[in-house]
Design a protein that fits this description.
The chain is α/β, with parallel strands linked by helices. The protein has 14 helices and 22 strands. The strands form 4 sheets. A 6-stranded parallel sheet has the order 3-2-1-4-5-6, sandwiched between helices. It has a 6-stranded parallel sheet with strand order 14-13-12-15-16-17, with helices on both faces. Helix 1 packs across helix 13. The radius of gyration is 23 Å and the shape is globular. The two termini are 22 Å apart. The relative contact order is 0.10.
Length: 458
């Protein structure tokens, strides 16, 4: 695909890095010569210095032949105009824009982003995307990663296997025999910095991060089998009253009415603004790195510390301090991709990378075939994909046991007529089935081919 990216910041760089690695033809536009020089030196992309919404710059970047434009500059209005220009002058088929101001996204203005008004096909709101991921983690505190597919009926959870995990050293084949009605499939294991698809004879080891696909109504039971029975958080401390922190606090007030929330914000003006918008939360003005503030917030009795400030270092250190004071769990927002490697060593239980969330949304529209959803794992080491099977798919009409799936690919669930089916050797895929499938990075292209019309690949 030919893709034009407007914005060479952290998100733009991450998208360009991922798409270029997959041999897409990528052009990047940014007004900063330094950023363009850096991205050109490090990635196999073409860089252009200029304003992302200007027609002449878009033309230089190849918009006339582009399949997609991804506008992720720091300014919503630039992103919106870039998509409008790409549509009106260059007829770019797919237009993606990052829009952060919630005013644009209110329900009463839903017609704004339509083909007749502002033709944007995909809107990415980092605050909402990340906020929802935080909320899913809080609802399932035993999981370090939670993603939903198939109309929210299929859930993929990342489960850390500790020393007290009951299923450690148990072959996966035996797990199926012990819990035949569970409807959960271990599709991937992250071990020693390597993510792979396990065989039925493999066992889970202490320290593994297991990725499990489960029916929504069996997720808590699945976590319990893996030794995680942590209750939903009743006392939550939120560090950072920015857009994400405010979104999470407002959602918790509405969805978990019994949860006690205390929010710490360093800016006095912002703290007062947040206090006006929240009804039940206690707002504390001060630094999340101040032990006195953490004590005042009740860190010693808190269930979860959620660090959502704009600074990774503050998020890491405040999470560590809260745990030292007695907080049971911590969840940290980390933008720097190199930080998660040592965050867990410091006792941080889970983290969220906003860039990874954004990239996953964009990959859904880059992937060829009937792709309904994509989630990237471990900095692109693998993907969970939800795809719809066509009549011509090589998966259709054969029992799974006779389909020679390449190594590195595993079917996790099949969604058919509103029902979730657990894959086994006798299951036959039907046309229009929605399949949740795990694939390591170098097998993603083969997954795409499975859900395209042409069978030449096989």
């Amino acid at each position: 695909m030919k893709i034009v990216i407007c914005g060479a910041g952290q998100v733009g760089y991450g998208i360009a890095e991922r798409l270029a690695a997959e041999q897409n033809d990528v052009s990047v536009i940014d007004s900063s010569p330094q950023l363009i020089n850096a991205i050109g030196d490090q990635l196999d992309v073409r860089g252009f210095v200029g304003h992302g919404a200007h027609p002449d710059i878009l033309a230089q970047a190849g918009a006339e032949e582009a399949d997609m434009i991804v506008a992720v500059t720091l300014y919503d209005e630039v992103n919106m105009v870039a998509c409008q220009v790409a549509h009106s002058l260059f007829n770019v088929p797919t237009k993606v824009a990052r829009i952060r101001a919630q005013s644009y996204l209110q329900g009463r203005w839903r017609n704004l982003f339509s083909r007749d008004n502002m033709p944007i096909d995909v809107i990415i709101s980092p605050e909402i995307e990340v906020g929802e991921m935080v909320l899913r983690r809080l609802a399932l505190p035993g999981a370090v990663e939670t993603v939903r597919f198939a109309d929210d009926q299929v859930v993929v959870v990342g489960i850390q296997c500790e020393e007290d995990c009951p299923v450690v050293d148990t072959p996966l084949r035996q797990l199926t025999e012990l819990f035949p009605d569970l409807g959960a499939v271990v599709v991937g294991i992250y071990r020693n910095n390597r993510l792979f698809v396990p065989k039925s004879s493999d066992s889970i080891l202490t320290g593994d991060l297991a990725y499990v696909v489960a029916r929504r109504n069996q997720v808590r039971r699945t976590l319990s089998i893996f030794g995680h029975e942590e209750p939903e958080a009743g006392r939550v401390i939120i560090a950072g009253g920015g857009n994400i922190g405010l979104y999470v606090a407002e959602a918790l007030e509405q969805r978990q009415t019994g949860t006690k929330i205390k929010l710490i914000e360093a800016s006095r003006d912002r703290a007062m603004s947040v206090a006006d918008k929240l009804k039940r939360s206690v707002i504390l003005h001060g630094s999340a790195l101040d032990q006195g503030i953490l004590n005042e917030a009740g860190a010693g009795d808190a269930d979860t510390m959620v660090a959502l400030t704009n600074e990774d270092e503050v998020n890491i250190l405040s999470s560590v301090m809260a745990k030292k004071l007695g907080c049971k769990r911590s969840l940290s927002l980390l933008n720097n991709p190199s930080y998660p490697a040592f965050a867990s060593a410091l006792g941080i239980d889970a983290f969220i990378n906003p860039r990874a969330v954004t990239i996953s949304r964009i990959l859904q529209h880059v992937r060829r075939g009937r792709i309904r959803g994509v989630h990237s794992l471990q900095n692109g080491a693998a993907e969970i994909v939800e795809a719809e099977a066509l009549d011509t798919s090589p998966l259709v009409g054969k029992p799974l046991r006779v389909i020679d799936l390449p190594s590195g690919i595993r079917v996790g669930a099949v969604f058919r007529g509103g029902e979730v089916l657990t894959p086994n050797g006798d299951l036959q895929i039907q046309a229009q089935d929605r399949i949740v499938i795990f694939a390591v990075a170098n097998r993603v292209r083969q997954v795409e081919q499975m859900f395209r019309v042409s069978l030449d690949f096989f």
